[in-house]
Amino acid sequence: MLAAASPGFLSPTGVEIAFLLVGIVTLGAAVVTVTTRQLVHAALWLVVALGGIAVEYLLLTAEFIAWVQVLIYVGSVVVLLLFGLMLTKAPIGRSPDADSGNRWAALTVAIASAVALVWVVVDAFRATWIRLDTVQGSTEVSGRSLFQYWVLPFEALSVLLLAALVGAIVLSRKKGEPPAASEASATSTPSVIAAPPAASAASAASGTSAAPAGGDGDTAGPAPREDR
Amino acid sequence: MHLAYPAVLAVLLFCTGLYGVLARRNVILVLMSVELMLNAVNLNLVAFDVWLRDTLHAGQALTLFTIALAAAEIGIGLAIVLLVYRNRGSSDLDRLRDLAERADDADAADRDPQQPDTKAEATA
Amino acid sequence: MTLTTTAVLVPLLPFLGAVAGFLLGRRHPGFVRPLAVLPTLAAALLAIAVAFGQGGGTATDVATRLTPTGSVPIDLALHIDGFAALIGVLVGVVASCVQIYSTGYLRDDPRYPSYAALVSLFTSAMLLVVYTGDLMVLLVGWEVMGICSYFLVGHYWETEAARAASLKAFLVTKLGDVPFLFGIFALAADTGTFRITGILSHVARDGLDHPTLIALLLLAGVAGKSAQFPLHTWLPDAMAGPTPVSALIHAATMVAAGVYLVARLLPVFAASAAALVVLAVLAAVTMVGSGLAALAQDDIKRVLAYSTVGQLGYMTGALAVGDRGAAVFHLLSHGAFKALLFLCAGVIIHAAGTNSLAAMSRMSGLARRIPDAFWTGTVALLALAAIPPFAGFFSKEAVLGAAEHATTGAVPGIPGAVGWTVLISGLVTALLTAAYATRLWLLAFRGSGAEAPDHGRQPLAMNAVLWVLFIPTAALGLGAPFLPDWFDGRSLTPTLTTSVLATGAALIGGLVTYAAWRHSIALAARTPIGVAVAAPDASPGLSEELAIATHTPPYADIAGAQDPADPSRLLLGPLRRHAATGFHLDAVYTALFVRPVRAAATLVRFLDREVIGTYVRGAGTAPGWLGAAVRRAQTGNVQSYLGALLAGSLVLAVAAVLVATGTGA
């Protein structure tokens, strides 16, 4: 295995140090996300955590994933979550009852799983070394594999997104009223509506073009999500 | 780079998300925690893909799919949350207790169909 | 038709009649009588045809094996020799008579269809026992007879006596049947076959490994079925059944099955001198004891029942001295005259409206009311008392002659003491038999007092049957010179010594009883006793049932009435009190078996209710509590559900990892 040539933990490389520091920040942001009493702050700390993960992707030479992460998570998901918070009239500022009654049980379960998983992972991979000498996740490489080998799942995914879109519309409608008339869904549904037609259109176009070699195809995949 | 670093980070992120899912009252905060868990998985996928130098780059492709799925999930999830909020005036998980065993279940008759969705959302 | 076909049809026809009776009886009452009478009658005629076809020649053996059983084979086998053929005729004729008699006797009985079908089934089973050549098949018939007897004794189940008697009959005979079953198994294990012919040839060739054990085990079943001491107690109580049933089952046929079985398997018993001694002692005790008990009974049918026990004792005595020809001869003649006596008793009970001899002794003119029963009954009593020239004399002389022959030790394998035991007890019993027969006749037909009520003539079906049975009762003795051809060839004609002795004893017994009766008749006039005449115009069966039900109030006990005018009081003296209760054997059984069993049952009931019941209730309560606890966990909070789920899967995962590393290392 690759483990034979691995150096020890006490002489970390620069990448490792960077990974470690960003990782600490990410983890800290995540912890604050799940513990803070201010709901909107939680969403913002989530941005930090997700961004940190994007940086970690970069450090792992998966640059395409990293940018997709930034675009979709930081760009759209968090925005959606913020919308959700506002639409449900979440309180701004500290809300004393952000945690439910079983937080201690939750803490126990979480720590126990953390201990068990860390133990297993460390036990299994403590001598495994990742060679980062070549870039594994450049846009070109990712696009090539995505549209050479993963076309069919990719298309299936676009159908799934369409289904999710329809589902979201159906769920958001008020019964007996046209969807545009409702105040609550008026702000949320357009953001959902806008994206998936573009997604299906774009992916359909790239799927039928049958020439996945270009940079066009590479950007077509994540593009719909960017719209959201 | 040691594989242990991303792996341990992923584990810790996952367990943080786990804590959030179990401990948060607001459904949207639970959704955020779910996102954290998904990201932890993604990190694992990418790290192992890089380590194994997979020619198909299955890990990275799967990460992309997961991200797309997460987007869809958050859309549907928020739609459900909004629906619940409209019907109940609350988005607190521990107030949605129609599954509870109680003497009279008559009042929960018309709201039953939404309960499985909420639960599925919480477990996602 | 070949002999085999005919012989197969003989048990089959009553069986089909019984099945048809069960199926049709309730819905089509018009078919019941033909279905009851005709198959039985046809079976009787076929049995006669079989007897003629067999003709006392060599035995006919046919066997077919339905399926291999893997161990000792079981065959559907027919074995027809002289014994089987003649007893088959007896069973067929008596069963036909009883069926015809029952059409009159139980004419208004609502349960007549099931009654008739059960009698048919019983007849079929008995014929099966008689004709079969395989012990397992014989056991089937044996047990079917037992269950039919149970149902028929309990025919009047409205009366307490009938219910108790049917249970007692069933349990006591089963008590004997269990060792009997083991005996059959032991016998088959020793000889390697269930076929009677195979067993006998094996015994003749190689002998048996455990002759005494097998013989004693079989003897238990025989004692139960044939009502020999100490398992005879069920028979007197079984008289709570209808009189025709008593005539067929408890006098002529079923109780003879045990004797018949011993006759068939006599070489097995003869292989063990100890078994023969036991048999002789049982026979002696049974004969003398039952004779004394019969003398003290008040119920006319109980007198006859004890008499049956005694006569069966004669048969076992004959078997003990190794003469099965004499035993079966007595079986035949006894079957005829005892069936006749019972059927007469049925007529008498109907005419008198009571089954109590004490009550009959206070009625005059009973004989005039029922002349047919009077004449046939008189002859049958003479036959019972072994007065020449009637059938009983010849058969009893055959038994006593065989015993006398054995006293000299001339018969190989049979100790002289056995012969002496049987001979002496037989002579004593001859005296006792004559005494109780005379007492029965005098009390029933020579009563004095109020005129017997007039119920008109008895049904023709009942009277005609009496005369049919009268023929063998009176004339079977004439067959004595010919019967040896059918049996083992040993002479059955009376010898002078025993004839003189036995007839003398019988005459003495009769005369002494007459003298006692003359002496006590004066008392009877002075001490009136409550006469319960039940339902004068009801059908015979109904009036018998009422007689049984109403017996106790005026006469105290079913067994012996408190009648100071009874000649038995004079004859038996202080012994009478004990004889009336069958020498307290029932009380002994109560103390020895019934009370311990009851106590055990109480204990088991306690254990069942308090110990096992606690477990059962706990098995219900614990899940109830568990359910309440689980119900409390159903808070509706999905987060707690999820937490529990994850915690559980975590524990499982850790366990799996530990196991995997543990086994991998």
From TrEMBL, chain B:
The keyword Translocase applies. It comes from the Bacteria. It catalyses: a quinone + NADH + 5 H(+)(in) = a quinol + NAD(+) + 4 H(+)(out). Residues 103-124 are annotated as: Disordered. It is an enzyme of class 7 (translocase). Pfam families: Oxidored_q2 (PF00420). The chain crosses the membrane at residues 61-85. InterPro entries: NADH_UbQ_OxRdtase_chain4L/K (IPR001133), NUOK/Mnh_C1-like (IPR039428). The keyword Transferase does not apply. Belongs to the complex I subunit 4L family. NDH-1 is composed of 14 different subunits. Subunits NuoA, H, J, K, L, M, N constitute the membrane sector of the complex. NDH-1 shuttles electrons from NADH, via FMN and iron-sulfur (Fe-S) centers, to quinones in the respiratory chain. The immediate electron acceptor for the enzyme in this species is believed to be a menaquinone. Couples the redox reaction to proton translocation (for every two electrons transferred, four hydrogen ions are translocated across the cytoplasmic membrane), and thus conserves the redox energy in a proton gradient. This is NADH-quinone oxidoreductase subunit K. The lineage of its organism: Bacteria, Bacillati, Actinomycetota, Actinomycetes, Kitasatosporales. The gene is nuoK.
